[in-house]
Amino acid sequence: MVPWCGAVSELRPLCGARVWIPDHAEVWRVAEVTRGYREGDTVLHVRLEDGSVLTHPMEPRPPPLCNPDCLSGANDLVALSHLHEPAVLHSLRRRFLEANSIYTYCGIVLIAINPYEALPIYGDEVIRAYSGRQLGDMDPHIFAVAEEALGQMVRFGRSQSLVISGESGAGKTASAKYAMRFFTTAGGCHGDASMEEKVLASSPLMEAFGNAKTTRNDNSSRFGKYLEIGFIQEKSREPPSKPTCWRSPGSPSRWVPGVEWEPHPLEWEALRLGLPA
Ligand SMILES: Nc1ncnc2c1ncn2[C@@H]1O[C@H](COP(=O)(O)OP(=O)(O)OP(=O)(O)O)[C@@H](O)[C@H]1O
């Protein structure tokens, strides 16, 4: 992210402008410029919200400008006048704390914040509300992205991909499950609860063999995942779906060498039932 472009002399933060100052405890803090930048100034004079005054060096780059309050918190980061790290963090924080919203768009990319609690935003009525709607018609949601993919597939008869990425514990697996729930419900399996069960039932088995408890996630996938769902004409899904899983080519395995194998309760269950590994 590039908070400022161009030479320092072109930027000239005005007196009264609000800028972001890096902070050890809060990462970024808002400050007001108390003396406009003049050619040759090496520091910017600012006042923090708690009243303390300080100077901030203009090199290697001046502090990033704050967005107007009416823009930060917009449901699409593209709407921000200044797009840089503190603006993104502030917007996501405001949406999460003030609007209770874990989802934000950045163009066609959906950003999700893990709420670490069950939210009432994944029910059938929400799936129905997002079904058939255009991306951008409604609040950002994983269902909107899933609907976009489903709609494109139906309209153009072409396979679609959802790429879900993030650090460990970010909620990739949960997001994939919500997307699959949307596909099974909105993709032509209305009223067939067993279809959703069948699609999601593969997860515990895969998790039994490939998941482990880590410091970041109690049920962390220790492998890359590739899930493929086949559909037949008229938006019906081809039973059974074909979830497959392997280490992504080129990406290192998450298995830690030297760590002793610990059987997972579900693995014992699979072995007891005589299921193939
Ligand atoms: N949208 C959500 N709503 C509620 N809980 C969530 C959501 N997303 C994630 N979680 C919770 O956060 C925890 C970690 O999520 P998840 O396992 O999906 O992370 P991950 O990105 O797949 O992690 P890893 O890369 O380690 O496998 C889970 O317990 C999950 O229930």
TrEMBL record:
Residues that coordinate or bind ATP: G166, E167, S168, G169, A170, G171, K172, T173
Annotated InterPro entries: Kinesin_motor_dom_sf (IPR036961), Myosin_head_motor_dom-like (IPR001609), P-loop_NTPase (IPR027417)
Pfam family, one: Myosin_head
SMART domains: MYSc (SM00242)
Recorded superkingdom: Eukaryota
Entry GO MF terms: actin filament binding; ATP binding; microfilament motor activity
GO CC annotation terms, alphabetical: cytoplasm; membrane; myosin complex
Keyword Transcription regulation: no
SUPFAM superfamilies referenced in this protein's UniProt entry, alphabetically: P-loop containing nucleoside triphosphate hydrolases
All residue ranges annotated as the Myosin motor domain in the record: 72-277
Single Gene Ontology BP annotation: actin filament organization
Keyword terms of this UniProt record: Actin-binding, ATP-binding, Motor protein, Myosin, Nucleotide-binding
Keyword Cell wall biogenesis/degradation: no
Entry's family note: Belongs to the TRAFAC class myosin-kinesin ATPase superfamily. Myosin family.
Protein's name according to its UniProt entry: Myosin motor domain-containing protein
Lineage: Eukaryota, Metazoa, Chordata, Craniata, Vertebrata
